[in-house]
Write a structure and sequence with these properties.
4% strand, two-stranded antiparallel sheet, single chain, 60% helix, 2 domains
């Protein structure tokens, strides 16, 4: 098996194990709740434009876009344009 295939198998195993970890899930939810108090999602830029998203969500979105390969992404509710630049740069 090539290195990338091995990596993907290991990743799948890790994700399966993580999904069963109740303490990790609790900690993650606590982080989201507590960091929202400080507008954590406001602390990031994409190519110089503010993007109001968690970095983890941006990574997940790029994976979805890469797998689905849409011809068009429609955004509603634009604040500073960071997510528009993000989507355009991924497409």
């Amino acid at each position: 098996m090539d290195p990338i295939s091995k990596f993907k198998v290991l990743r799948k195993e890790n994700l399966k194990a993580m999904s069963k970890d109740k303490e990790l899930k609790k900690t993650a939810l606590e982080f989201i709740a507590k960091s929202a108090k400080y507008n954590y999602s406001y602390n990031f830029d994409w190519l110089g434009r503010p993007i109001i998203q968690h970095p983890e969500d941006m990574m997940a979105m790029q994976e979805i876009i890469w797998c689905v390969k849409p011809d068009l992404i429609i955004e509603t509710g634009i604040a500073h344009g960071g997510s528009l630049i993000f989507s355009a740069s991924i497409l």
